[in-house]
Amino acid sequence: MPRPRPPFPAISGLWGKPTIINNVETLANVPYILRVGGEEFAKTGTEKSKGTKVFALGGKVNNVGLVEVPMGLTLKELVYDIGGGVPNGKQFKAIQTGGPSGGCLTVKNLDTPIDYDNLIAAGSMMGSGGAIVMDEDNCMVNIAKFYMEFIADESCGKCTPCRVGTKRILEILTRITKGQGKEEDLDRLMELSYATKNGALCGLGQTAANPVLSTMANFKDEYIAHVRDKKCPAHECKDLMQYVIDPNKCKKCSLCARGCPVGAITGVVGKEPFVIDQKKCIKCGACISSCRFGAIEKK
């Protein structure tokens, strides 16, 4: 006899089997809660966010790796007490929490206690538990572009706001970092970011614009410098950066020229200061690494 058809569409999971999807970190907490009880578990954390959180702490910080911290720990404690601060005497600039679609938080946010509500209120999120520290040498426009490359590639393409919006945002960011940005691009970025955020169907699209919105809110001057002055204040965007030899510091030793892989540096040993042909220079940094006298700088 034929099997009777169910009165509603059949639902199946992976390989046609019943499937449950849970965060691994959530499941890892279950045995502990069953062992000690909910009240004991709730003694750690904040009023609305109980327990601990695992972060993948990385970037410009001395101690990188996976760390488990109690909810309520401040970002400052995470960066400086656990992370050991920013290396090489550099200044802390921002921390990106929540993975690629999180937001970049600044010095003014360092006293923020870490929990789900506080991070969202500050313009970021807990997300996948990523915590990437940035210093003064990071360009925030380039950071936004880096994360948008990932998000645009990860979009499933089902809904137009995410499928098209992320690609258009990435195109604008790419133009800006190449020195081809226009004033209207800044308004266009905001318009597209909110259209993507408000119109996307899933969490990826709804948070896709966070890197752009947070960096524009906190580092608008860097966007303006890229568009109006065609300069990258952090000297990170290669198309807007030059390596220049100071003739007053140059010792005419030719170390930089010998280390240049494309022959972009010329001069006369012991007689004339060396100079860099900007049309040939590929901005690899070999010259600045080989110079022992600090005669080469990025501009």
What is the CATH architecture assignment of the largest domain?
Answer: Roll
Number of helical stretches of at least 4 residues: 12
CATH class of the largest domain: Alpha Beta
Structural class: alpha+beta
Major beta sheet, strand line-up: 2-1-5-3-4
Radius of gyration, rounded? 25 Å
Number of strands: 9
Strand content: 5-15%
The percent range for helix content is 25-40%
- Main beta-sheet strand count, sense and barrel state: 5 strands, mixed
The secondary-structure element order is HHEEHEEHEHHHHHHEHEEHE
Q: Could you say what the CATH topology of the largest domain is called?
A: Ubiquitin-like (UB roll)
Q: Count structural domains.
A: 3
Shape: globular
Mean pLDDT across the residues is: 92
Distance between the termini: 81 Å
**Are there runs of 5+ residues with pLDDT below 50, and where?**
none
